[in-house]
Amino acid sequence: MASLWKLGGLGLVELGKRVWAEIQEDEIFGRAAQLAYYFLLALFPLLLFLMSVIGLVMGSETDLRDSLFAYLGTVLPGSASQLVNTTILEVTKSSGGGKIAFGILAALWAASNGMGAITEALNIAYDVKESRAWWKQRLTAVGLTVILSLLIISALSLVLYGGWIADYVAGSYGYGESFEMAWKVIQWPIALAFVLLAFAFIYYFAPDVKNQKWVWVTPGAVLGVTLWLLVSFSFRLYLHFFDSYSKTYGALGAVIVLMLWLYLTGAAILIGGEVNAEIENAAAKGGAPDAKEKGEKSPNEK
Hints:
The protein is an all-alpha fold. It has one domain. It has helices at residues 2-5, 12-25, 28-58, 63-75, 78-94, 104-125, 134-173, 177-205, 219-242, 245-249, 253-285.
């Protein structure tokens, strides 16, 4: 809704104070730690599901799979990235030719547990109680996992094959090298847009609130993605120069680094949700007819 980008009539400083107060009240950092646990259990099934879908769509093509781990490695700290790559490689080899022993549907079901945990945490951010039947909750979590998977594959395909697409279009329509260069630059913001869209889907469908208006890009999504990228690259840079985890914890260092990164990822998602919830709460108190106060599932409850 338009009131989201008007920040509910709040200034940036006031909004920041309110969001920080809500973060403390809702114990967001503690819940991010819970999410890290669920994310750890859901990460490998999600990657296995992605690899299975890529295998079904692309056949024996491996470039997209390699691209998946290559770009995961750009945000994931080095030791954690190596741990993920090694684990997935061992699982796919042991299951024979990349065919997952417990099946694609089982992998999707396990991966959706992480989305279910996000749903519970965002309900707390909006101060609402879950009233959907368990099967609706699970169906929502599975659906969001599928959407997230499709967005990831689409973004990877765009980045991997974007240069080829630009060359083909330029050659077919005579646009020249300038078009090719422009496309190769534009493809990265488009890939970022896929990430923003993933956050938008999460904030729209995950919490148990009704009669929402769809907004392609919300302030919470922008902040959540920005925080996620910022903490990911900062954490990666810190570990590049001060990687003491492996020295302190040995082989467990990579697991700890992965858990910390998942913790930061969960915190970024939840903080973005708190921003959207607080803006809408302020807008509702300011008289916006299509906004909901904290604890309301629909503006019609007024």
